[in-house]
Amino acid sequence: MTRVAGARSISLLALLTAAVVGAGAADRVAGLSASQQATFSTRVEAVRVDVLVTDRGRPVRGLAAGDFEILDNGVPQQVEFASFEQIPLNVVMVLDMSASVVGERLTNLRAAGRAVLQGLKPADQAGLITFNEPVMLQSRLTTDVGPVRQALDVATADGRTSLIDAVYTGMMLGESDAGRSLVVVFSDGLDTSSWLSARLVLETARRTDVVVYSVWVGGQERLAFLRDLSQYTGGTLVEAASTKNLDAIFLSVLDEFRQRYLLSYSPRGVAAAGWHQLEVRVRRRNVTIKARPGYVVGPTG
Amino acid sequence: MPRHPRLPRLTELAHIVALMATLVTAGQASYAAPRPREGARVIPGRIFDDQSDLTAKQRELAKLREWIQAVAEHVPGTADRAAATIAGWSNADLEMIAAPLRFYRDHRTEAPAPLPTDFNGLLRRGAVLHLDVAVVPGVPPAAAVGTAVLMEADGQSVGTGSRSPHWTCARRLLDLLRPEPGRDEIAHLWYWASAVFLHFEGDLAELGPHLTRARQLFPGSAPVLFASGVFYETLAAPKIQSAAPRERNGEPSVGTIAANLREAAGYLRKAVDAEPTWLEPRLRLGHVLAQQGRHEAAEAELRVVASGSVDPILRYYAEMLLGAEEQALGRAELARECYQRAAGLSPRAQSPHLALSQLARGSGDRAGAQSAIDAVLRLSRNDRDRTDPWWSYLDVGMQQELVEVLLERLRASVATGASR
Fold it and tell me: Is A182 among the domain residues?
């Protein structure tokens, strides 16, 4: 994840300010999508890090910016902002609709998607991507979840699995809006038809501030890609034996994401380009922290 | 899910993977034809030295006559009565054919009345009959069963099936050709057409022994070498690797990715050397080299294909794969140009736009990445409108058109009896 120069950092600032003052959906950063603004620069204006803080499994609330320490490549940074559960979410669902997701699995998957939509707040946005061989945009990010629900209801399962292509597309959809994005990936199969390689998409994952939660139903040996994806973005991989309680799993993902802090800092004392190892700590507290392990700035060789 | 119009979707997208090592062992090797024993008495139909098994021998002779009649009556390429008759044969019935034929080939004067004088012609038409039993729609399912195989769909094991013993039976017949099967043009065509069909059907379990025997007979044949290269390239694919059972050492029964890529590269290189102007082996060689991390070598092969092919699908593959190699070699601008040309060749394909987006994102160009991904997001939400040749890459060397052309040519050849 890198924050780029100029407008991109302004949009972040606008978003954060809006969140601090409790602005609602009307104050979303509409019109400030990354695709319209961003121009590449290796200069990093601001970095944001999504952080989950738990104590014996329970989210820790009430922390402020001053409670956090961030080391960027080992150099302590000044945390300028910490928000908890105040910023509207962009939730992109990336759902496997290949041939293996038929019958009860499809029914349960639809129900899980609907549960997420029901769990959204008015200012939150939802987007939906389904995939088998084609990656299909069913809905761009929108606060109007009606069409998203309709798309879920008519989705059918067939064909092979372009999981990697779909995950990449989901991350890009998440990045298309300057808000705080969660990508929820569901799959039960091995990738069999993607063009993009796992390596390149994981490299992209190290650049994005989108957080990916993966829900997997299937054998152990095929988990590597989703495990790495979730780790690189600071998300979680949920392994399920069946789709029976998929709605509860999806809701728990949404709930956990809401319990995260969004931290922001302007990097100082570190080289701009390359890999930035991140370490996040909470002062004077023995807590568990989950955040992405770092981010990449600039082109890779 | 529609695929590229030139590459119709298989019924169930099932690849067949051998349960055990049968996949890469020659089916021919286990067959040992009985030889006349010294002092044995010979009667039409079979050799035997004991009157006690006369009934069995007579049954064998009757079976041979039935087979010869079916071969004579069969109209190649049709689901006729002759094909149905042979389809109804058991494994034991099929086992009764090759050995007496071998004997009569060498003892023509002992042959039963219906044995045609054109013995090679009988063998070739017989091979086509057994191929038709396995291939032609409408022929009843074969009663005989082969070794168990695992069915794979979308990278997952989806049950078991069995190999058709008619392929082995046909290969045994062609082994009897004189002066030698390796010099028989129709036998070569039979192996080529069958290999294309088996690959198109995803019958990898049968394709392994089929190609092993084909390479023994036709070691310099570009089509056989090409088919062998594609076979091993396919075995290296994640979906096959994932579905294949594990050996005791944890390795897939179909061989490791590295081992299969090594085999594929070897055969494809030989195919390219044998037929330098044939671009498809070169394309696949480029892809295999790329998977081996030999990017400079891959780029060189793919560039030849991209600049030399007039087939839009082949060019699409070449541009995409070449783009990936340029990207791997750090030449982003050249990669971008390749992907853009591929997008022009197949406007409804998502892969070029995904590649362009990822290329931009990898260089930190978020706006460029968003612009390219928008092209994917704008593609139709209707399955039927979506197509991308990439989805059929592992099938494309073996197109349905080619299957039909080769089978038609083969059937016409046995009808006219033409041979080298």
Answer: yes
Report the alpha-carbon distance of residue B382 to residue A241 in Å, rounded.
Answer: 31
Structural domain includes residue A3: no
Phi, psi of B223 (to 5 degrees): -60, -40
Q: Which two tokens stand for residue A67?
A: 């409670």
d(CA A139, CA A137): 6
Contact A37 B367 (CB under 8 A): yes
pLDDT of residue A219: 64
Q: Do A33 and B366 touch (CB under 8 A)?
A: no
Tell whether A206 and A118 lie within a shared domain: yes
> Do residues A251 and A215 share a domain?
yes
- B251 reaches A (C-beta below 8 A): no
Q: How confident is the model at residue B112 (pLDDT cuts 50, 70, 90)?
A: low
Provide the domain count of chain A. Answer: 2
Residue B93 is which amino acid? D
Beta bridge partners of A289: A53
Mean of per-residue pLDDT scores for chain A = 83
Same domain, A201 and A293: no
For residue B357, what pLDDT is reported? 98
Nearest CA-CA partner of A19 in A71, A86, A66, A81: A86
Q: What pTM was computed for the model?
A: 0.83
CATH classification at residue A152: 3.40.50.410
What is the per-residue pLDDT for B385?
Answer: 85
* Interchain pair B155, A133: CB under 8 A: no
Q: Which residues of A touch B333 (CB under 8 A)?
A: none
Average pLDDT of span B219-244: 92
Considering only residues 238 to 267 of chain A, which have any Cβ-Cβ distance to chain B shorter than 8 Å?
none
B240 to chain A: closest CA residue: A192
Give the pLDDT of residue B417: 55
Residue A234 located in a structural domain: yes
Query: Where is pLDDT greater, at B56 or B8?
Result: B56
Helices B279-291 and B312-328: angle between axes, nearest 10 degrees:
30
Same domain as A73, residue A213: no
Question: Is residue A104 one of the residues assigned to a domain?
Answer: yes
pLDDT in tens, A99-153: 889 899 999 999 999 999 999 999 999 999 999 999 999 999 999 999 999 999 9
Indicate yes or no: CB of B155 within 8 angstroms of CB of A190: yes
Which residues span the domain enclosing A104? Answer: 86-258
